[in-house]
Amino acid sequence: MNLTDISPAIALTPLDGRYHNTTAPLVEYLSEPALNRERMHVEVEWMILLANGFEGNGYEPLIEGVEPFTAEEQAFLRAIPEEFGAEGIAAHAKHEAVTHHDVKAVEYYIDDQFAKATASMPHINDRLKTLVHFACTSEDINNLSTALCVKQAMEQVWTPAFKEIIDHLAAKADEYRDMPLLSLTHGQPATPTTLGKELAVYVYRLTRQLRHIESQEYLGKINGATGTFGAHLAACPEVDWIAVSREFVENRMGLTWNPLTTQIESHDWQAELYGTVSHANRIMHNLCVDVWMYISRGVFAQVPVKGATGSSTMPHKVNPIRFENAEANFELSCSLLDTLSATLVESRWQRDLTDSTTQRNIGSALGYSQLALYNLMGGLKSIHPNAIVIERELDENWEVLGEPIQTAMRACELKGLPGMDKPYEKVKELMRGHEIDQAQVEAFIDAQSFDEETAARLKALTPASYTGVASKLVDFAR
């Protein structure tokens, strides 16, 4: 049997197949029907503005011969996108099969809805079909619809999941702010830190990206075929179309008005947003790798899930698959987001259609990131510090105290104490390439001509207590 013959159709990508339950919330905003619904929303709001005017023109119709819509009629128009469902999707598809133009199909679909108007709404009739898409090029509708779709997807789906990651990390950073941890720089034992401080580093990095995302502008335009309002003025020269455009984009659509465009809105805001999301992805990818290696090292222990299989042949294993899944999906998301950022900012002269196909992958780009966020959150909730391993690592690496000892020797030399020359070399001879213990460290300190206070301070240090102000630094994470 051919898989293509099975109904309902089998999903080609894992986002709509294997991982559908995780990525489904984005369908509400970034699917093709969601885009068409927003197109209808833009079209009917444009009609209402043309018929009813705005504060700047005294709420008078903008076009001669058009009577203002009543409240009932406005509600009828707004119900067209609000009630766009399975039946409407099929009806729109029939129009597009004939027109081979998705926005024109939206226009015809709206025309069809006028036939459903009741006798109590005399202005919703065939005569007003002319008002649909008045003075608009398809990109007037598309750029606003896309901006609204992306804005809602970010605000309602992606950003809340991103914040959940940050909040979880912030809570754990605070919980483990005093838990000492052996650092590894270049994979080698180094100055100890605290687990909380290391988690706080990620909180700080991710919070900066969150601020960029929350302050992101979403630009829009409605100014005609090449951004000149040419058709608008030819039809209605007495109207201040610049003011109308600004009113519509800012106050009716809730977007940032772009006054200067070609046929398309230039997509710079999209490049900025996708660049920021990609950057956030990469920070979280770094987190996944770090946690994976902490698990491998034993610093983090995983909570086994009852009934789950870690390995098909090795029953003892609990694999860090959540972090591996997140790592891979962040990479896929970045590849798409980077492509979107690079290509959407270019257009041949006043218009080419490459952006149309490209923008249809926004859902995939954010979908892979959403899937990664889900798995990262699940992974973070399934781990906890392994205090036994952490303490053992610290106790096995007394050589990390070479740094404070040689630095204290330098300070004493600067104060004029004798016998403090070549501190780095002396400590290196004792500690590099050797396994040493507390007794050897204390003996070395006793052999130097430290003042009593400095000697006591150094001898009080252990790998577990040599964490500087790491605990206090957690407070700077947010």
Explain what you see.
The chain is mainly alpha-helical. The protein has 3 domains: 22-136, Fumarase/aspartase (N-terminal domain) (Fumarase C, Chain B, domain 1); 139-241 and 252-391, Up-down Bundle (Fumarase C, Chain A, domain 2), CATH 1.20.200.10; 398-462, Fumarase/aspartase (C-terminal domain) (Ribonucleotide Reductase Protein R1, domain 1, Orthogonal Bundle), CATH 1.10.40.30. 58% of the residues lie in helices and 5% in strands. It contains 20 helices and 6 strands. It has a two-stranded antiparallel ribbon. Strands 3-4 form a two-stranded parallel ribbon. Strands 5-6 form a two-stranded antiparallel ribbon. A hairpin with a 2-residue loop joins strand 1 and strand 2. The longest helix has 38 residues, at 138-175. The protein is elongated and about 100 Å long. It starts with 19 loop residues before the first helix and ends in a 5-residue tail after the last helix. It comes from Bifidobacterium samirii. InterPro entries: Fumarase/histidase_N, Fumarate_lyase_CS, Fumarate_lyase_fam, Fumarate_lyase_N, L-Aspartase-like, PurB_bact, PurB_C. GO terms for molecular function: N6-(1,2-dicarboxyethyl)AMP AMP-lyase (fumarate-forming) activity.
Which structural class should the secondary elements be placed in?
mainly alpha
Number of strands: 6
* Shape category: elongated
How many domain units? Answer: 3
Uncertain segments are: none
Helix content: 55-70%
β-strand percent reads under 5%
Q: Give the overall average pLDDT.
A: 94
The name of the CATH superfamily of the largest domain reads Fumarase/aspartase (Central domain)
Tell me the CATH architecture of the largest domain: Up-down Bundle
H/E order of the elements? HHHHHHHEEHEHHEHEHHHEHHHHHH
Total of helices: 20
CATH class of the largest domain: Mainly Alpha
Strand order of the largest sheet: 1-2
GO molecular function, one term: N6-(1,2-dicarboxyethyl)AMP AMP-lyase (fumarate-forming) activity
Domain Fumarate lyase N-terminal: 17-326
Keywords: Lyase, Purine biosynthesis
Organism: Bifidobacterium samirii
